[in-house]
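Protein chain data
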Amino acid sequence: MKYVLVTGGVVSGLGKGVTASSIGVLLKACGLRVTTIKIDPYLNTDAGTMSPFEHGEVFVLDDGGEVDLDLGNYERFLDIRLTRDNNITTGKIYQSVINKERRGDYLGKTVQVVPHITDEIQDWIERVAMNPVDGKEGPPDVCVIELGGTIGDIESMPFIEALGQFSYRVGPGNFCLVHVSLVPVLNVVGEQKTKPTQHSVRGLRGLGLQPDILGCRSTEPLEENVKAKLSQFCQVPISSIVNLHDVTNIWHIPLLLRDQRAHEAILKVLDFQLVSKVAREPKLAEWTERASKLDKLKATVRIAMVGKYTGLSDSYLSVLKALLHASVAMDRKLVVEWVPSCDLEDSAAKETPEAHKKAWSLLKGADGILVPGGFGNRGVQGKILAAKFARENNVPYLGICLGMQIAVIDFARSIMKLRGANSTEFDPDTTTPCVIFMPEGSKTHMGATMRLGSRRTYFNVTKCKSAKLYGNAAFIDERHRHRYEVNPEMVPEFEKAGLSFVGRDESGRRMEIIELPSHKFFIGAQFHPEFKSRPGKPSPLFLGKSIILEKNILTLLLASICKLLS
């Protein structure tokens, strides 16, 4: 097993996750099987209870693991399926060590950070790296490890120490360190500055790790004299200094690495030069075509994203990527109109009239409306109004998780005239609870107590739009993350009024997909289809939305016919 460690210096948010994913793409294109591990030094056991404002979206895996959004990047770029163990946190490591201490596994010894915590980290990496994630038998060839945070952070010190020991444990030729750092340009001076990277590398070396490759983030390509200076002061060959300058879209990053022969530098450090199955030149024709296609798109499709975390796009990262995958597949340039749900509410018309007017203008000008998942009652009324507008005006609508639930609430209030209809999440005392708390859910513990991971949905209406979009499948497996669900006792009333529950779980009592048969595209899904969308393999529900949003009628008819025939 070979290991590539990606660390970051100077500042956070440099794009270590995309860099690690792109390195994986490059190695995979050379014929190697790749797995990934993300190390998050925070004390939380997982990302499940963290606010999207603080940490971006929570990505959900097949096994129900609630993990850092970088694992979503890994899965999308590499088309793999990871497990919760591929995300290491300080909380998980300490919990494991304390559990062993309570069992008496340490034979009465004093349990310390070194060697017990550091050994646990190394053992965890070795164990997880051997697990196949690409659907094939046998262990992968390379494990790409991303260390979250920035070199020098107090919380990451045990991991730095462990990884230093780990590089010695696996031996020369089996460990490659890629350090991503910043080369800024000061506006006053106008030249690229190497000092931040020099200090970052010095700090890394002081902690016992010497970078093999430097990934230099910058706005513009690095000048040759800057590379020479970095090589001299950081003791890294010029051929191993890779420039990660700004590009038009992140699909160019693997191509940027390839063009600078980064794969050759990595393969050399990992002693892969003489391995026959490793290609000298990465096969990235499809990737190149996709990145180029995205740059050339002209015709637009406007999607109104109605949510309460609109100030931070990372809160809806997977939804955005799923929309992008679908729009590129349909030759459309994606334009996302961010609509804060609070600004749609009647109260906003009095308190913030300009914001209210702008929000409704964006909503009415969109080709389609998407209401993603979320928790809490802030902005819920605005989301209900968005679903109502889409329903009444025949505007394509996709509701995900909470987006499906609020569509049900709107239908109950507007069509069935049940004015008090609500979710018990927002009104525990509602007399018409059309969305209720899961029977098996915990009201005392928040972490890992939702309905999580891959679950099966059966289509009980075979000719519905959703089933056709999924290739007329009898059932599908999608990932879930929710505590509340449609009240099964009210389903007969809803269906009698015209709302169709076309997908259910194996018991038939959990509602998974809703549709309005009379509407051209009004679909709600209790699951999160965005988590399994991939470049070149868009999620069917997102792709179906793009098909229906085609502005050219002839193209629409052809696309629909092709989809139905397939």
